C-alpha cells in the first residue's frame, strides 16, 4: 500500500507547475479575444469629438432658443424645445455655452452637413513668402547661375522671388548696354516663370519680381 502511494505521489505533477495543453480541460481554451473590452484612446481615455453640443448633449435644463426663422425664445425648457421640431430635419446646437441659460439655435441638418463637407474640400490657402536674391552687376556667369538656380527652387515651392542687381563697392560700373545684357540673361533664365514686377532700374539698382505660373 505504501509503495503504491509513493508511486502515485511521484507521478503527480508538482502543485506549482502549469498544466500542459494535453493535460488541461478543453474548456480552459476559450478565445479570449472575443470577450476583450475595446481599447481606449491614448492615456486610457475615449477620444472626444471637438464640436458644439447638440440635442441631448446639451446639459442645461433651460435654454434661450433661436428658431429657424431667427426668433429668440428666452428661458425655454430644453425638453419642450426638443419636442417642438422635426428631429429628422433639424439639430438644436448650443452656440453660446457661457450664456445663462445657454443660447441654442436650430440648424437645418442638410445645410449643416453640406457646409461641413464644403469646408473639408476647400483647399488650404498657400502663404506666399517673398524671397530675395541679390548679386552684383559684375557677377560671374557661374555665380549668377548659382543665384538664379536658388531663385528657381524658391519659385517651385510657391514663393515669390525678388531679384535685386546692384553695384558693389570695388567693382567697375557697367555701362547701360552691359546692364541690359545682364537683365536679358536673368529674364531668359527665368522665362518659365511669371514676371510680376520690373525690371525697374533706379540709379545702379535693378529690381525684378517673379512668381510661379
UniProtKB/TrEMBL annotation:
Transmembrane segments: none annotated. Keywords: Initiation factor, Protein biosynthesis. The keyword Methyltransferase does not apply. GO terms for biological process: mitochondrial translational initiation; ribosome disassembly. InterPro entries: T_IF-3_C_sf (IPR036788), T_IF-3_N_sf (IPR036787), Translation_initiation_fac_3 (IPR001288), Translation_initiation_fac_3_C (IPR019815), Translation_initiation_fac_3_N (IPR019814). GO terms for cellular component: mitochondrion. GO terms for molecular function: ribosome binding; translation initiation factor activity. Residues 130-205 form the Translation initiation factor 3 C-terminal domain. Residues 55-121 form the Translation initiation factor 3 N-terminal domain. Belongs to the IF-3 family. NCBIfam families: infC (TIGR00168). This is Translation initiation factor 3 N-terminal domain-containing protein. It comes from Hesseltinella vesiculosa.
Amino acid at each position: 500500500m505504501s509503495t503504491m502511494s509513493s508511486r502515485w505521489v511521484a507521478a503527480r505533477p508538482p502543485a506549482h507547475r502549469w498544466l500542459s495543453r494535453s493535460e488541461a480541460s478543453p474548456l480552459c481554451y476559450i478565445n479570449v479575444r472575443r470577450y476583450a473590452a475595446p481599447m481606449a484612446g491614448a492615456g486610457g481615455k475615449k477620444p472626444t469629438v471637438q464640436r458644439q453640443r447638440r440635442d441631448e448633449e446639451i446639459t442645461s435644463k433651460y435654454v434661450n432658443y433661436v428658431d429657424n426663422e431667427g426668433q429668440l425664445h428666452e428661458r425655454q425648457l430644453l425638453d419642450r424645445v426638443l419636442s417642438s421640431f422635426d428631429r429628422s430635419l433639424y439639430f438644436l446646437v448650443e452656440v453660446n455655452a457661457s450664456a445663462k441659460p445657454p443660447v441654442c439655435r436650430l440648424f437645418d441638418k442638410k445645410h449643416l452637413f453640406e457646409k461641413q463637407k464644403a469646408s473639408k474640400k476647400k483647399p488650404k490657402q498657400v502663404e506666399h513668402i517673398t524671397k530675395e536674391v541679390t548679386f552684383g552687376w559684375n557677377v560671374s556667369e557661374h555665380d549668377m547661375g548659382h543665384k538664379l538656380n536658388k531663385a528657381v527652387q524658391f519659385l517651385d515651392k510657391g514663393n515669390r522671388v525678388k531679384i535685386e542687381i546692384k553695384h558693389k563697392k570695388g567693382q567697375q560700373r557697367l555701362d547701360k548696354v552691359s546692364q541690359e545684357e545682364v537683365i536679358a540673361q536673368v529674364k531668359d533664365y527665368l522665362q518659365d516663370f511669371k514676371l510680376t514686377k520690373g525690371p525697374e532700374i533706379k540709379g545702379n539698382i535693378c529690381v525684378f519680381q517673379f512668381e510661379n505660373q
